[in-house]
Amino acid sequence: MLFRQVYDYIRIRMKRGEWHEHDKLPSVRLLAKELNVNRLTVFKAYQLLKQEGLVYVKEKSGYYVSPEHLNNIDAAYQGSALKHASAPDIRNKLSDIHRVEASNQFSKALIDPGLLPNLFLSDYVKRVFDLYPKLMGTYSTAQGDEELRTVLAAYLNQQFYTDCHASELIITTGAQQAIDLITRMWIRPMDAILVERPTYSAALDVFRAQGARLIPVEFAPEGYDMEQVELLMKEHRPRFFYLNPTFHNPTGYTLPADQRKQLLELAEAYQCLLIEDDSFHDIYFDHRPPRPLYAYDTSGWTIYIRSFCKYVAPGLRICAVVGSQDIIDSLIKAKSLADNGTPLVTQKIFLHYFQSTRMQQHLEKLRIALQIRKDVMEEELRQSGLPWTWASPNGGLNLWIQLPEGLSAQRLLEEALRQSLTFVPGAICDPLDQTEDHIRLSYSFMNEASIRIGIRVLAQVASDILDREQM
């Protein structure tokens, strides 16, 4: 809800010490103009702050910071060394779930380490150190190793019939860093951005930490309502639209090619960057997905994030970001401040493995293995006797499951954790925090036997909850 985002914006500024005890806050009219929102939205935010004792009202004068606001904002900080310079609230709900030790890990959209080419990779580690004996004593540039960028540009050009040059790429330490750098460069507090509903949970937390105003776009198996997308762009003039159009996380949906082309027309018309997160493009089962949006882009409105972490070697954390020269120049500056360059040793290891015949053989085997695991999970869900529903994806790592009527994802998670089982509840993937009737199950991390056991545990937990509810 938008007034909650305005509430958080004011609260964070108070916590940072930008407004002190008894300071007068901006009027409803001025703050609404500054944030480009309706006056009623700001009024509701101020009323909530007043209700919680963070502000008080002087008649015919306005809103003021309560002298007790520090205690009310966060008592945990009181008496701490951080009391006068505390960090803003930062959340990563997905990471919190991943930290839970569990026997049945359906929350991790990662490849089972047993499916990765570990022995082959060790061969390339030795080869790289033979070729570059001084590698460990050398920094990469902030933009990334030129040899790797040249190879990846040629690969993308061959795959998608584009005309990408190595200078238009930057190497980041995984897609997560790419999202973070882009957000830092293009977002200021209360800037509007479009996000899919649902979407990648950690990206939402990055956007919220930067103070973005999240405008949801519903994503269905058939794609977006393009008229709605245009209305939202026209009304909110968003800074960008973050989207994951190919084997979408968490749903597994894939945006049709015709909608990709329409999006580019809208992006140009309304000056809205498209941030295309494409981490699963090569994880397809029956047929290749459509070309990415950036492959259709002739006007430079797309920033393409292509991660290779998931299915090559997660520990190497290699991601390529493609954009126009001015976009890449901005990201190089941000990257230089973040870490001054992804480690050169990981870039070189990835480079030599990526070009090998073994890499293509690995991909072909991985697709088969993941499709088998998806089929096993779907079979167990169908045989459980419960009315789960989902759209079977043609790639990716996840199933987006609608729960039986009357079953809450949060309640199911609480009970599942007691049985040493994790999954991702739909609410943390929802920019509105409201999706309580869906969960994300990842079939990539556990083997077939473990998937069968885990789904049976999950089904039993769900049945027990529903039985108690009906008593």
Description of the structure:
The chain is α/β, with parallel strands linked by helices and 471 residues long. 45% of the residues lie in helices and 13% in strands. The chain has 17 helices and 14 strands. It has helices at residues 2-15, 28-35, 39-51, 69-73, 93-98, 118-131, 146-160, 174-186, 201-209, 226-236, 257-270, 293-296, 325-338, 344-354, 357-383, 409-418, 448-470, and strands at residues 55-58, 62-65, 104-105, 169-173, 192-197, 213-218, 240-243, 273-277, 302-307, 318-322, 398-402, 421-422, 424-425, 438-442. It has a 7-stranded mixed sheet with strand order 4-10-9-8-7-5-6, with helices on both faces. It has a 3-stranded antiparallel sheet with strand order 11-14-13. The radius of gyration is 24 Å and the shape is globular.
Question: Which secondary structure elements does this structure contain, and how are they paired or packed?
Answer:
Blueprint: H1 2-15, H2 28-35, H3 39-51, E1 55-58, E2 62-65, H4 69-73, H5 93-98, E3 104-105, H6 118-131, H7 146-160, E4 169-173, H8 174-186, E5 192-197, H9 201-209, E6 213-218, H10 226-236, E7 240-243, H11 257-270, E8 273-277, H12 293-296, E9 302-307, E10 318-322, H13 325-338, H14 344-354, H15 357-383, E11 398-402, H16 409-418, E12 421-422, E13 424-425, E14 438-442, H17 448-470
Parallel strand pairs: 3-12, 5-6, 5-7, 7-8, 8-9
Antiparallel strand pairs: 1-2, 4-10, 9-10, 11-14, 13-14
